[in-house]
Design goal:
The chain has about 60 residues and is an all-alpha fold. Helix content is about 85%, strand content about 0%.
């Protein structure tokens, strides 16, 4: 895939809604982490999950 693919997809999704944009960003992360060591990928997913949990808690108060 070209380097512009994800940029265009994310911009297009952001115009639809923030949730759709976030979903496309997670798709990009998933495709990137597919290429690295599973231990590193698991750590990255855990860090992403922790960050999303903090964001969720902050905006649901």
């Amino acid at each position: 895939m070209s380097s512009n693919y994800w940029t265009k997809e994310i911009k297009r999704a952001d115009t639809t809604s923030p949730k759709t944009g976030a979903t496309r960003r997670m798709d990009r992360l998933r495709s990137t982490l597919r290429q690295v060591d599973p231990v590193i990928a698991n750590r990255a997913w855990q860090e992403a999950a922790d960050a999303l949990q903090r964001i969720t808690e902050r905006y649901t108060r």
